[in-house]
Design goal:
CATH topology of the largest domain: Rossmann fold
Helix content: 40-55%
Number of helices: 14
Largest sheet: 4 strands, parallel
CATH class of the largest domain: Alpha Beta
Radius of gyration: 23 Å
Number of domains: 2
Order of helices and strands: HHEHHEEHHHHHHEHEHEEHHEE
Strand content: 15-25%
Strand order of the largest sheet: 6-5-4-7
CATH architecture of the largest domain: 3-Layer(aba) Sandwich
Bound molecules: S-adenosylmethionine
Structural class: alpha/beta
Number of strands: 9
CATH superfamily of the largest domain: Vaccinia Virus protein VP39
Distance between the termini: 67 Å
Length: about 325
C-alpha cells in the first residue's frame, strides 16, 4: 500500500467516526437550548463557566460535565469562547449559530430543535432499514402507526410538533412576506395543513383584506391559538377542503419549501437532502423532496397551468425559499 492509499484509509476512518458521532451535536444543542443559551442571551454579556453554573442553580450540578459540554459546543462552533485580560477564565458568548437557539424570538429554531431531537422523533429513524426492505414508513415500522396518527394520540408530542413547526414557519415568514406580493390575493384564502395557523396569521396581519382560514386535522386545530381575521377549520384534506378563492399549501406537499439539488453545494443543499430522508422515514409513502423538474411534472399532472408558474428562489437572509404560484388550468 502506498502512502497516498494509507492516508486515504486513515481519512476514511476519521470520517466514519465523525459521521457516527454526529448525533452528539444534536444532543448537545438540545442541552444548550434548555438553559445555557438563554442564560448567556439574557445577560447580554460574555459569561464565565462559574457564572453560567451559578445561574443554572442546581444543587447537584456537575461542573466538570458542564465545562466539557461548553468545550464541545465551542469546538463545534455553536458557541464562541473569548478571553478578556481582566478575567482569568474563558468567557462564553453566542455566535451566529447559537443566536438561532434563543427562546421566544421570531427568528429562532429552538422549538424546532426540541422537536427534531425529541426521542420520539429520533427513534422512529431506526426503522429506516426495515422501511427500505419491507416497505411502509420507518415510523410505521417503529410505532405501528403513521406520523399523523402518532401525533394525534400523543398530546405531549402533538404540542412539541406544533411548536416546532410554528417555530420553523416563523423563521421563514419574513422572507415569504417580502418575496411574494399578496395584494393580488382576494377574498378567502385557506392554508391547507396550516398547522396551528402561524403562516396564515402572519399573512392576514400584513394583508387584512384577506379572509384567512386555517385548515388542519382536529388534534392540531385543538392546539391552535386564536388569531384576529383567521378562522380555524378542522377536517381531512383528503375528504374535503373549505371553498376559497386561493389556497396556500406550505411544507405539506413534500414538504419544506426547498428544491432538491442532490449534488449541489449551496448553503442549504445538505439540509435539503437530510429532509428528503426524513420525509422518507416519517411521512406517508410518497413524501419526498423534489427537484425543479419533478415539481413541474406534478403540477402538469394535476393540470395546473405551468405557464403561470412563478418561482421565487432567494437566499433572503433566513432560508433558501421556493414558492410555487400556480393556477388550475381552465
Ligand atoms: C409539516 S406540517 C406543516 C404545517 C404548516 N403548513 C406550516 O408550514 O407550519 C404538515 C401539516 O399537515 C397536516 N396534515 C396532515 N395530514 C392532513 C390531512 N389529511 N388533512 C389536513 N391536514 C393534514 C398536519 O397535521 C400538519 O399540521
Amino acid at each position: 500500500m502506498n502512502k497516498k492509499e494509507e492516508d486515504a484509509i486513515i481519512q476514511g476512518q476519521s470520517m466514519i467516526m465523525q459521521h457516527l458521532q454526529s448525533f452528539l451535536i444534536g444532543v448537545a444543542i438540545r442541552c444548550a437550548i434548555e438553559k445555557i443559551v438563554d442564560i448567556i442571551h439574557n445577560r447580554g454579556v460574555p459569561l464565565t463557566l462559574t457564572h453560567i453554573a451559578h445561574e443554572i442553580n442546581s444543587p447537584t450540578l456537575n461542573l466538570d460535565g458542564l465545562s466539557r459540554l461548553m468545550r464541545f459546543l465551542v469546538r463545534k462552533q455553536i458557541l464562541d469562547e473569548v478571553h478578556e485580560p481582566e478575567c482569568n477564565e474563558p468567557l462564553y458568548v453566542l455566535n451566529y449559530c447559537s443566536k438561532w437557539l434563543k427562546h421566544d424570538e421570531r427568528n429562532s429554531l429552538a422549538a424546532f430543535t426540541m422537536w427534531m431531537t425529541h426521542p420520539d422523533s429520533t427513534s422512529n429513524f431506526l426503522g429506516l432499514k426495515q422501511s427500505i426492505i419491507e416497505g411502509d414508513t420507518a415510523i410505521q415500522k417503529t410505532y405501528g402507526v403513521e406520523l399523523w396518527d402518532f401525533v394525534s394520540t400523543n398530546p405531549q408530542y402533538n404540542r412539541i410538533f406544533n411548536e416546532g413547526m410554528a417555530c420553523f414557519t416563523w423563521s421563514t415568514m419574513d422572507a415569504i412576506l417580502s418575496s411574494y406580493e399578496f395584494h393580488g390575493v382576494k377574498g378567502t384564502s385557506v392554508d391547507i395543513g396550516g398547522g396551528i395557523g402561524t403562516a396564515i396569521n402572519d399573512i392576514v396581519t400584513k394583508y387584512p383584506h384577506i379572509k384567512g382560514i386555517n385548515f388542519d386535522l382536529p388534534h392540531i386545530i385543538s392546539d391552535a391559538p386564536t388569531y384576529q381575521g383567521v378562522t380555524h377549520v378542522e377536517g381531512d384534506m383528503f375528504k374535503a377542503i373549505p371553498p376559497a378563492n386561493s389556497y396556500l399549501i406550505k411544507s405539506v406537499l413534500h414538504n419544506w419549501d426547498i428544491i432538491l439539488n442532490p449534488r449541489g453545494d449551496g448553503v442549504f443543499d445538505d439540509a435539503c437532502i437530510n429532509f428528503d430522508i426524513i420525509m422518507f422515514m416519517a411521512c406517508n409513502i410518497g413524501g419526498r423532496e423534489r427537484t425543479e423538474d419533478e415539481w413541474k411534472a406534478i403540477l402538469e399532472d394535476a393540470q395546473f397551468n405551468s405557464s403561470k408558474l412563478s418561482r421565487f428562489l432567494r437566499t433572503y437572509p433566513l432560508w433558501k425559499l421556493t414558492m410555487i404560484d400556480a393556477s388550475k388550468r381552465v
